[in-house]
Amino acid sequence: MTARTLTAGPPGETGELDAPPGLPRLLAGVDGQGPMLLEQHLAVHGPLPVVDRHRARRPGRHAEQPLIEQIGRAGLGGRGGAGFPTATKLSAVLESRGRAIVVVNAAEGEPASRKDRMLLQTLPHLVLDGAELAAEAVAADELIIAVCESAPACLESVRRGIEERRELLASQAPIRVRAVPGDYVAGQESALVNHLNGGPATPTFAPPLPSQQGVGRRPTLVTNPETLAHMALIARHGASWFRHLGTASQTGSALVTLSGPVTRPGVYEIEYGASLSSLIDAAGGTTAPARALLVGGYGGSWIGGELLGGIRLSDEHLACHGAGFGAGVVLLLSENACPVAETARTARWLADQSSRQCGPCVHGLDVLATTIAEIAGGAAHAHAGERISQLAALVRGRGACRHPDGAANFVLSAIDTFAPEFSDHARRGPCDACARPAELPLPRSAGPLGANGRRSIYRARRR
Fold it and tell me: CA dist 110 to 76, 107, 296, Å?
């Protein structure tokens, strides 16, 4: 797993608590030689500040929770995709009645993202620091680290980190590690809680929210590994230090998973608002011309290649393109790929990832994927474009989670960005590039074009 820093300021000196404000932050001290052991972690970041546990154990007293106040001043947003204010989430759990529990959500079912796996595999102690701080802040007496079952290296790294801490540090809350399914919707907050409660890893309707009634019907903080890693650094260096990087609405740094036709794909740390071109330069440049950029993952949006020169990576800069930063997926599609075939394959995979409990998702996404495959194969009805728009409107906002919304957004964005290619396929059928190896990463079980895509896309020949 590759992890690199896109430097926006002077690099930090290891072992220095009064850290310089630039990059690297999360990735300070990473050497690519395996997990950072506890001794090295403490040499790079120093010990955590002493927590006043008497104050931390008095539930319902937000005014007496200095860490929550500090996180609020820092402006830290969640790094799982939604960007919800972390301090607000902490406060909601603290103010709920009952013994709280903290769940580190490292399921990471997004196929184009690897940042959370990289963190747990390379920097387990930074995540564990943040998790223990979060437990203190919300008066939790238990921690669960939920790791994707298909990531054995992460499971091993976390378990080893916990053992190191038991031997050398006085950890307060007991920590359990749970292997969880890696399905696309399994990492959704309520789906993860449902699975940890012994049910299937499928989303449930709210209310109640996990902060009110989560694992074991207890108030539960469900948060992302990267969010916790940032919390561990804010606790050490303060809110002003954190805000030195970023934009007015998105403070600090963020991890991005960069993939596609670049020399060195991998996980990079950037300042919010950094230019796409600087990220690509840090990755050694492109290996082929880029046709488009997918930002935010498979629930995100496409941006055409002709616009990439001015792209900056933050919500406020991406909004004018109808896109958002999301969970930090930055994926370039080369001009060698067929965007219609890629869309058909991914749309079918997204439809197959439905938890099959909400009608609009079960039926709507299936018909949406079939219609895209028919366009790709030149066998679509004359009004297929209108049908797609109607279907997208019907599935949005009607499920237990945002999966149908994201899938519909992905398809509509692709049709808009690749309008000439979709029009050409509708008239003439598959192009030569349809037979090229797929570029968008999907689990191997998805097949070349998804469950049904291969037969559909070659239904008609070019005329």
Answer: 22, 9, 10
Question: Structure pTM?
Answer: 0.89
What is the C-alpha to C-alpha distance for residues 133 and 221, in angstroms, rounded to an integer?
12
Output the pLDDT for position 61.
Answer: 44
Two tokens at 410?
A: 């992905």
Per the structure block, which two tokens stand in for 391?
């279907």
Name the CATH architecture for the domain at 253-334: Roll (3.10)
| Helix, strand and coil in the chain, % to nearest 5 | 45, 15, 40
393-425 burial code (b ≥16 CB/10 A, e <16): ebbbeebbbbbbbbbbbbbbbbbebbeebbeeb
Q: In this structure, what DSSP letter does residue 308 have? A: G
CATH architecture of the domain with range 25-243: 3-Layer(aba) Sandwich (3.40)
Closest CA to 114 of 159, 165, 76, 148: 148
- % residues pLDDT > 90 (the chain): 69
The highest-level CATH class for domain 339-457 is mainly alpha
Q: What is the DSSP letter of 45?
A: H
